[in-house]
Amino acid sequence: MDIEELRTFVEVADAGGVSPAARRLGISKSIVSRRLMRLETELGVQLLARNTRGAALTEAGTTFRDYAAKACAEIDIARETILPAGELRGRLRIAMPLSIGPTHFAPVLSEMARQHPQLHIHACYADRFVDLIAEGYDCAIRLGYLQDSNLIARRVGAIEGKLVASPDYIRAHGAPQTPDELAAHQALMQGTEAWQFMDGDKITTVRPQGRFKADNGTALVAAAKAGLGIAYLPDCLTQESLVSGALVPIMTQHPPPPAGVYVIRPPGHPARKIRVLTELLIDYCEQAAPPATDGAPA
Questions:
Q1: Which among 295, 214, 222, 219 is positioned nearest to 259, based on CA atoms?
Q2: What are the C-alpha distances in Å from 96 to residues 131, 141, 196, 217?
Q3: Closest CA to 231 of 145, 296, 135, 139
Q4: Does domain 3-82 fall into CATH 1.10.510.10?
Q5: 298: buried, middle or exposed (CB in 10 Å: 19+, 13-18, 0-12)?
Q6: SS in 3 state form for 199-264?
């Protein structure tokens, strides 16, 4: 039984169709379909019921999917064990923020690809929340404060940030001095996130409100510079605007608590490719000079 056929079946089962599985695997839909047909022929059962919306697992497919996934995982571990020391191959699918991923973390992936020419790296840059398991990713880089989940997190570095607003906004609306005063201001947000601030040794949580939202940090910088409200952003996105005076820090007496950069992965034994990436990111974050002195948003 061909391991690539098993792996393809698992991807189709998890992605819910041939087309999304082909995108995950980086191959054509025709190749995916041929592999599925060969596997079903060899097993003598139908694993997937195809329809116009995608593909659903049959009863046999549901049973076989877990066995196939375990077999693929065991083969991956076996391959890692017998590879020459330091050599990586196979595929690494990773998700990271669009706002700072291309500028801050893409060089790490490029270096990893240079060091391991047999490794295929597929990176997704998106500020939306990526479901690693449902979307078939090996790991993700996430920033800020992590919520409880069944995923495994490894902190690789720190990230700093602060509240900012434009001078025009402050002249028109004033600047809040305490977290409670934020309720009277327009907040620029990615969604319905909570903001955290230090009050001595105590952490205060605020759920701000605002009429302008964007799922990208760079877009929120532009909105803040246009005077639309107050933004809570990493220093790496606002540093240039702070230096030029287009934005100014506010409520500095209540800084955000320390935040981090994390590698997130599904539970289970970590693949060596994820361990190698994690160590590269730790080295990178240690060498990079911190841009400022406060905290960072999620």
A1: 295
A2: 12, 5, 23, 13
A3: 296
A4: no
A5: middle
A6: ECCEEEEECCCCCEECCCHHHHHHHHHCCCCEEEEEHHHHHHHHHHCCCEECCCCCCCCCEEEEEE
Top pLDDT among 160 and 250 is at 250
| β-pair partners for 92 | 121
Taking only the tens place, the pLDDT of each residue in 52-102 is: 677 788 999 899 988 888 888 788 777 777 766 667 888 888 999 998 899
Q: Residue 219 pLDDT > 90, yes or no? A: yes
Read off φ and ψ for residue 177, nearest 5 degrees: -105, -20
Question: Judging by beta carbons within 10 Å of its beta carbon (0-12, 13-18, 19+), is residue 64 exposed, middle or buried?
Answer: buried
Query: What does residue 252 show for φ and ψ, rounded to 5 degrees?
Result: -70, -15
Q: What is the pLDDT of residues 140-161, one digit of tens each?
A: 999 887 776 778 899 999 888 8
Spatial contact of 270 and 152, defined as CB atoms under 8 Å apart = yes
Each residue's pLDDT tens digit, 105-133: 999 999 999 999 988 899 999 888 888 87
Give residue limits of the domains in the chain: 3-82, 84-298
CB 209 within 8 A of CB 134: no
Q: In what helix (H) or strand (E) does residue 43 lie, and over which residues does it extend?
A: helix 29-43
Under DSSP, the state recorded for 187 is: E
In CATH, the number for domain 84-298 is 3.40.190.290
Residue range 18-42, pLDDT digits in tens: 888 888 788 898 999 899 999 999 9
203 token code pair: 């952490």
Structure tokens, 104 = 């801050």
> For residue 239, what pLDDT is reported?
92
**What number of other Cβ atoms are within 10 A of residue 297's Cβ?**
25
